[in-house]
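Task: complex structure prediction.
Instruction: return structure tokens for all chains below.
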Amino acid sequence: MIPELGHLALILALCLAAAQAWFGIAGAQRHDGVWLSAVRPAATLQTLFVLGAFAALVYSFLVSDFSVRYVAENSNVSLPWPYKITAVWGAHEGSLLLWVSVLALWTLAVTYFSRHLPQEFAGRVLGVMGLITFGFCLFMLTTSDPFTRLLPAAEQGRDLNPILQDPAMAIHPPMLYTGYVGFSVAFAFAVAALLGGRMDAVWARWSRPWTLTAWLFLTFGITLGSWWSYYELGWGGWWFWDPVENASFMPWLVGTALVHSLAVTEKRGAFKNWTALLAIAAFSLSLLGTFLVRSGVLISVHSFASDPKRGIFILAMIGVFVGAALTLYAWRAPTLARGGGFQPFSRETLLLLNNIFLVVAAASVLLGTLYPLLMDAFGLGQLSVGPPYFNAVFIPVMLPFLILVGIGPYVRWKQGDARDTARTLRIAGIAALAAAVVSLVFAHGEGAVIVAAGALLAAWIAGSAFIEPITRLRQRLQGRHASLSRATLGMSVAHLGAATLVLGICVTSTLGVEQDVVMKAGQSVSVAGYDFTFQGVHAEQGPNYEARQGVFEVSWGGRPIAVMRPEKREFPSIGNETTEAAIDPGLFRDLYLALGNPLDQGAWSVRVQYKPMVRFIWLGGLLMMLGGLLAASDRRYRRSAVTEAVPAAVERA
Amino acid sequence: MNKFRQYVPFIIPALVLLTLIGLFARGLFLDPTKVASPLLGKGAPKFSLPQLQDAGTKLDQDVFQGKVSVLNVWGAWCGSCHDEHPVLVALSKRKLLAIYGLDYHDVRNDALAMLQKDGNPYDAVAFDASGDVAIDWGVYGAPETFVIDKRGIVREKYIGPLTQDIVDTQLVPLVQRLQAEPQ
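Output:
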């Protein structure tokens, strides 16, 4: 009964989304106040039905209703209940429903927080979001219905893929989707502005907090994913340039460009066309991410759904949505007024460079991700593109970009003063050089140059990020009036995050030590000054798995510091085995142990790793997210329309 | 004309999209499972594994020398392997070629029980508990079947369960051709 209600709720949501789209877009074109006033109720009801459908599926999982095929295929009575919930988005149908539910939450938020926007503009925004909801509901109902019954019901479900049974994995997809789908709001704002022919500083101000919020969720989602793969996949890597990782990274790069480009549009009225294009691109890449993961076009460890019918549907949907948006763009963008001019050395120029570097980076990731497909499509053979390509194209683009990150905030709008900027940044430059020298003293060997470069860039960006807040603080201590807006503070924190990330990547990838050894009980191995003594392996029983647990005593300089217990887990219900690495974490270094395979006579192959500063990578991601949060909560976005000075002129040349 | 030219740069994104869509549409109709195995034309990867029925005896790549054989990758946990099993049993009764098994990621007793119940088509089964050998062979998932010639060279790979149709129209003709080759 409940699954049927869920199915019905989805159908109703589809109809309401159609109404929301029609009344919103057509109402705005006809300037019909009555139609426009129907948009909000339609949107609210639509979201409630979508969330109802989601609740119905969650319920079916919680009560283990194996007469629902999707539940039978992805859940199991012995699964602990939190994982029964996360199993909801463990496979194709459920993750689509999650996608639509997240879209529903964003729609609800826009409905609620858009009251101060002009009615026609808000109508168009919600109308575009309604169209997207309509497309995805139709996709689900026609090709991927999660509520299909299985008759006769299965007695015992299969299990959730064991590597997905993990707390980080429980929140990774929702966070990532919140980011992906959040770009639909930026997209809807851009399309609404193009439809209305009005694209100006006020439009940028409206869409900025939404974009920032989407961006911070995506940042968090990617960080979580990286952390999860580090401790769960058992290889000790934190980024693999896997197609699915790339699928989330491309919208992030373009979204980062968009966040900066919106600043120019808001402050100076410039870059309008460019900003609109980035907003369309960010969401298109999010859709592309969904397509890449869901269609099986690119084979990757992540693709658990492979069905050409679904692929064709998503592809057609991307074609319609993005095609329509880009056609509209080609038609409207040339007529938009250009913004204020600027000199070669100005904040605008630097932000333009920022945008160019980020877009080039995204394009090179896109090329690397699609290259195997490209070769195959033209019959040029099958190949795969790995980390060497990505490192070779990505790092050279990032180096100048990271230097600019430090400079940008201290160049004035319109016309900068190079000497002034240099004077302000002197201290950051000194810090950067000092950091490089110090790291050259401590680091030896091949990696020393990379570590020094990392330290230089990190100190440069971090130094630059600190200057502004510290200057303001000093002024205030001296009794002068000085305010530091959350937007500025957010920028500083996010840049500090970038610095932390860069340092973590450089140090861990060059100074990390990795050893594969064969050990018998009682033997010891020494890695990077730490002694690991193998005590043996014993059996452990988990809720739905059986484990073999190794015990290692770790000491440093003869002093015991930890006992580490890596496991190999076997999940009998699906005959799968996972490796649970043991990690002894620390801010400045992680010790990482993974059990390999049992060998003859009680010996085991063991992978021992010393990973200095690996935590800085995720700390950097979290700081960036925090920066986004601060910036999105800036006071000026919370001002109501009444106090907001709306330029009277509708900007069309 | 001038008015038209003004639009040109703004049409580029739409053209990029069109190109990408065309590419993806093409990609959808390529069969991702039909990956040419890099092993084809090369010697069978080296391995040395205990046998399923007798952990004390090892099985290695030398077993393929001097006759045409197949290596069938399977596991008792794998549903399609159960579907495929009767086809293999029928094939083994025709005594056309040697059939070896690679049982991977499996529980020994489950695998033995399956052979006991449904029949054993294999001349010998290598037991690959860790799946390392399967990785060396480039196995995507079970079942997969490799055809190996008299010199121990991998000549063909079938991904997914063998059906009676595949056996009759592809596998058996291929085996007959390989048997006609000089050693």
